[in-house]
Amino acid sequence: MMQKAANVPPRKTSASSFLTTFRQLADSVGPEAAPGLRWSLAGLIAAAAFQGFGLAAIAPLFTAAATDPDLSRALIWFGVMIALMGTASGLRWFAQGFDFDGRMVRATWRLRGQLGAKLREIPLEQLQNKRAGELNSMVLGNVDENLLYALTVLNLVFTAIVTPLCAAIGIVMFDWRLGLLLLMIFPAIVPLYRWRRPALGRGKRILGQAHQEASADVLEYTQGLPILRAAGRAGEKAEKLSQTFHKLESIQAFGHRKGAKPNIIVASVVELGLVAVLGLGVWLVVAGSLHPATLGAVFVIVVRLSEPLSTFILYTAMLEVMEAALERIGALMATKPLPQTEPAQVPKEFGIQFKDVNFTYAQGDGQAISGFNADLPERSLTALVGPSGCGKTTLTRLLLRHFDPQNGAVTIGGVDLRQIPADRINGLISVVFQDVYLFNDTVLANIRMGRPEATDEEVRAAAKAAQCLDFIERLPQGWQTPLGEIGGRLSGGERQRISIARALLKDAPIIVLDEPTAALDTESELAVQRALDALVSQKTVIVIAHRLSTIVGADQILVIEDGTLMQAGKHADLLAKGGRYARMWAAQGAVKKWSVAS
Amino acid sequence: MAIKEPRAEQTPKPKRVSPWRILTPVKTQINLAMAISASSALFGLAVMLQLMMVVQRLIEDPTTVPWLWFAGAAICTVGAYVARLGAFNQAHYAAFRLERVLRTGLAERLARVSLGYVETQGAGALAKVIHDDVKALHVFVADSTPLYARAYVTPVVTLALLIALDWRLALVTLIVLGFGYGILNGAQKRRRDMVRKYNAAREQVSAAVVEYVQAMPVVRNFDSGKMSFGRYQNALDGYLTVMLDWYRAAGFPARFSWLVLSPMPTLTLVLGTGLWLTSAGDLSVSRWLGVLLICTGMAEAMMPMMMLRHMIEKVSLSVARIEEVMTAPELGQGAKVPSDTPLTLDPTAPALQFENVTFSYGPDLDPALRDISFAVAEGSVTALVGPSGAGKTTVARLIPRFWDVTSGAISLGGHDIRDMGPDQLMEQVAFVFQESFLFAESIAANIRIGKPDASDEDVIAAATAAQAHGFISDLPQGYDTPVGERGVFLSGGQRQRIAIARALLQSRPILVLDEATAFADPENEAELIAALSELMRGRTVIMVAHRLATIRDADQILVFDRGQIAERGAHDDLVAQGGVYARLWNNYEQAQNWSLGGERTPQAPVIEMVK
């Protein structure tokens, strides 16, 4: 689903895509605002139609004024025109009320709230795909920008299509030959434009790709700058970068030529139409069947019609963005959470079992986990070891139900994860990640999120057990220090201890530790170790560890390679048996003894 | 470690930058585009006048085709069209060229500023300036400049023509315009204030979105989204309030001025007035027609002008960021050492020396290093240890001039590093940092960086010494295997060994290591260490280390504490002293012997401990 949203499929080019856009727009603003939106759109269309007829009235008005010495006929037509134009303005005023009364803003506000809520329940696998993640940020961040202009853009579309159509119909009633010519030219433009639009899309795609490449090269340059400079290959000597910029420029020029084509076609039709009307009109006048004043009035009308067309073309980019945004919103809203099977059950015990688990990532090649069986008794400590990429983290993510296995099952206390309501699973498990995420809130709030109803004393006790007190009290505003501003000033160990305090406070029966001590300095490490000891007592624990010495006391060690279980047992047994684990242990022992001068 | 404001902040930032100044490199081309665009507007007006003349001739003599005027109108139509396209194309090609020129300029600038600047700004943020901010200029340069010329030429010429055709009708259009403009200005009154509030609210929303989406795994695990969702919702509410406020304050005048400035009111009034004037015999039909054809030109120019104003405001942030990088201070070089001749080092001076070095990251920040003095003999190993934030990494990064010292001096073989040319300095020093960076090229190209003329044999020899030859040979394309963006196809330890091979090939006398083994996975660690040993052989080494066991045998250990050297000496002496180092060593040994859950006792449930 996300994949599909990522590469927006080629859109249909017929009028039906307009209807689809309307429907998506109505869905997006929600049931409360949808009737208002529909009325508003109807108002805009009616306004455009009245405006067209109002313009057409200029022809008889002008002819009458120029030919009829009696003013009354001209005045009647003037009255008709004012009535039509006034109605058009009134209708438009009413229709734009949807924007100006704040109904559109409220609708996007509501929509963003909904999208945010949706994000909490869609499978995490889809969120953690980086591209999809960025896309979602974009949808959430830009919804308003894309939708707030919807009425403005649609108004332009209607004035570009409906107004010329109605003006031409009005002129047909007055002079069928000129009217027919107009009917042929102007309404043809929009379908023509939409027909040519794929070329525009192609140009855009080529350009988008070139920009993506250039962006990656620029990032590589800035990130690699220390090395490039150490090698004397930065600045004007960075040939690759310079080539990239040149290439981008030529692709931009190419894309511009390609992308400009539909615009040129539309503009050419408008200009040629103008000349054709001019020619036909002059011929009719000379042939004696048209009054010159009428021809003049038709000129005035035609000039009026070509104006909205050129602005329409100017705003088509906005229309494209809006359509794409609507599609993404639709795709996101249509994403289903992982299904829950009935009857719902909540485990009473907290042992974990993996039964014949097979798992393949949606975008991955090959099985990440195959035929995996393991039994993790309640309150035992299980360590997962193995080279990076072997599937350790995938196993913990299966336990957290970021995704479901294709075969087999993961159970907690004998209950299949798929039977446990989603929020209950998260209540059962606390995770301490390698990369700690601190929120833009106070220290207190960052710890308390583990259990919102905890008292200040309980938060304090958790922080104490997690070895946080000393540094929290040193912070400029103590517990109330906002971490958004100073989060970067805390050391890795300090951040890690806050996350452990969070987990301690939550007091979930199952603990997952994902290399929590991987990147700490010695002093922090000791404190984090103490904090972890406080956290894991009495819990069912799964720990991913690289340094084997930290897990020698585990109740069982699972050695994993390429997604399969190679060895399982206690440290001493595995050492005695020899094999993979014993080899890893020996290698790490050798490293420990290394010193610079040896 | 706390990295604060860059030194560049010392120079006051230009507050408001005119986006026009950034156009300088393509000024001629843009001026040309604007001139063509203006001429297209003139052609357009000429068409209208000629149409008027066609009708006038036909009224005078309905039997003859007014060929001259007719042809003129047709030609000017084509001329206006061609000129519009030409201006559009010119402006676009100028915009593309400007993008390239600016990007190249920015990249070259970054090659000359201090690396500390690069680090504090962040590679990602700088890349954003080079790519995204430069890209953001496009709409302004390519689309706005031609419009700009039109938006100014059209109303002025139109007014002149209107006055020439009929001053009374010209007055009518001016009244409508003035009325609309007055209301519009009313709507703009609180605009600046509103824009500021709007931007602030938007920023809050996007910060909340980023936090909410990025941290989703944590969010779900810890509060099922209540807290961060609350913050997201709060930001949305704030945004809604600002928007509703704006509609209340400026909605009516904005809407009303749009209505007045749309072509319809002008057209209607000109028709009405014209009707009255012609019936009084005071105005010829053809002049009336001429006015009708061009009368909306002034009002119609207002909207593009407003749009342009908005657009210029929008790009000025990007322009300011670009200019900031463009004016970032370059690393100076004292002129004492000629930079194009190879450096002659004084053999009697220490290979590396810090003399009374004090350094702070910003003028109002406490010094990160205070009065540091030490000397490193050629071929010796010096280890920098201490708690995090004590200044070890800062020392390591002062050597390649990530920053310059605030006071004191650093010298290599008797030469102050500020007197050396950048290339001269780099010829002396090689670095291996915590995470080594690889370029998205082949393995061989990555090793060869810094010595492009090295033969294949040299590359293989370096890789072999760095314990990398084995895994490279196992790869499908061997040394020609692309390593992927930032080296993603390789493990951390493999990347690190390639970086070591690179340093080996460069073969520079002084080696700076900053926790070179920190991110290696245990599988690779043994090989990595063998590679490092190979690299360190015979070189003068400065290393930052957390794993104290690795530096037991260093010639000199400098123990840092709060920016100063607290202790110095060899391992055994320092342990015996019982000071900072002894404490660190003790902690280290304890941490080494820890095993998770070692203190798990069934009698002490955790919640008891917490309470």
TrEMBL record, chain A:
<dbReference type="GO" id="GO:0005524">
    <property type="term" value="F:ATP binding"/>
</dbReference>
<dbReference type="InterPro" id="IPR039421">
    <property type="entry name" value="Type_1_exporter"/>
</dbReference>
<dbReference type="InterPro" id="IPR011527">
    <property type="entry name" value="ABC1_TM_dom"/>
</dbReference>
<dbReference type="InterPro" id="IPR003593">
    <property type="entry name" value="AAA+_ATPase"/>
</dbReference>
<dbReference type="Pfam" id="PF00005">
    <property type="entry name" value="ABC_tran"/>
</dbReference>
<feature type="transmembrane region" description="Helical">
    <location>
        <begin position="74"/>
        <end position="94"/>
    </location>
</feature>
<dbReference type="GO" id="GO:0016887">
    <property type="term" value="F:ATP hydrolysis activity"/>
</dbReference>
<keyword id="KW-0472">Membrane</keyword>
<feature type="transmembrane region" description="Helical">
    <location>
        <begin position="41"/>
        <end position="62"/>
    </location>
</feature>
<dbReference type="GO" id="GO:0005886">
    <property type="term" value="C:plasma membrane"/>
</dbReference>
<dbReference type="GO" id="GO:0034040">
    <property type="term" value="F:ATPase-coupled lipid transmembrane transporter activity"/>
</dbReference>
<keyword id="KW-0813">Transport</keyword>
<dbReference type="InterPro" id="IPR036640">
    <property type="entry name" value="ABC1_TM_sf"/>
</dbReference>
<dbReference type="Pfam" id="PF00664">
    <property type="entry name" value="ABC_membrane"/>
</dbReference>
<keyword id="KW-1133">Transmembrane helix</keyword>
<keyword id="KW-1003">Cell membrane</keyword>
<feature type="transmembrane region" description="Helical">
    <location>
        <begin position="147"/>
        <end position="172"/>
    </location>
</feature>
<protein>
    <submittedName>
        <fullName>ATP-binding cassette subfamily B protein</fullName>
    </submittedName>
</protein>
<dbReference type="GO" id="GO:0140359">
    <property type="term" value="F:ABC-type transporter activity"/>
</dbReference>
<feature type="domain" description="ABC transporter">
    <location>
        <begin position="352"/>
        <end position="587"/>
    </location>
</feature>
<dbReference type="InterPro" id="IPR027417">
    <property type="entry name" value="P-loop_NTPase"/>
</dbReference>
<keyword id="KW-0547">Nucleotide-binding</keyword>
TrEMBL record, chain B:
<feature type="transmembrane region" description="Helical">
    <location>
        <begin position="170"/>
        <end position="187"/>
    </location>
</feature>
<dbReference type="InterPro" id="IPR017871">
    <property type="entry name" value="ABC_transporter-like_CS"/>
</dbReference>
<keyword id="KW-0067">ATP-binding</keyword>
<feature type="domain" description="ABC transporter">
    <location>
        <begin position="352"/>
        <end position="587"/>
    </location>
</feature>
<feature type="transmembrane region" description="Helical">
    <location>
        <begin position="256"/>
        <end position="276"/>
    </location>
</feature>
<keyword id="KW-1003">Cell membrane</keyword>
<dbReference type="GO" id="GO:0005524">
    <property type="term" value="F:ATP binding"/>
</dbReference>
<keyword id="KW-0813">Transport</keyword>
<dbReference type="Pfam" id="PF00664">
    <property type="entry name" value="ABC_membrane"/>
</dbReference>
<dbReference type="GO" id="GO:0034040">
    <property type="term" value="F:ATPase-coupled lipid transmembrane transporter activity"/>
</dbReference>
<feature type="transmembrane region" description="Helical">
    <location>
        <begin position="30"/>
        <end position="55"/>
    </location>
</feature>
<dbReference type="InterPro" id="IPR027417">
    <property type="entry name" value="P-loop_NTPase"/>
</dbReference>
<keyword id="KW-0472">Membrane</keyword>
<feature type="transmembrane region" description="Helical">
    <location>
        <begin position="67"/>
        <end position="87"/>
    </location>
</feature>
<dbReference type="GO" id="GO:0005886">
    <property type="term" value="C:plasma membrane"/>
</dbReference>
<feature type="transmembrane region" description="Helical">
    <location>
        <begin position="288"/>
        <end position="308"/>
    </location>
</feature>
<dbReference type="InterPro" id="IPR003593">
    <property type="entry name" value="AAA+_ATPase"/>
</dbReference>
<dbReference type="InterPro" id="IPR036640">
    <property type="entry name" value="ABC1_TM_sf"/>
</dbReference>
<dbReference type="GO" id="GO:0140359">
    <property type="term" value="F:ABC-type transporter activity"/>
</dbReference>
<keyword id="KW-0547">Nucleotide-binding</keyword>
<feature type="domain" description="ABC transmembrane type-1">
    <location>
        <begin position="32"/>
        <end position="314"/>
    </location>
</feature>
<keyword id="KW-1133">Transmembrane helix</keyword>
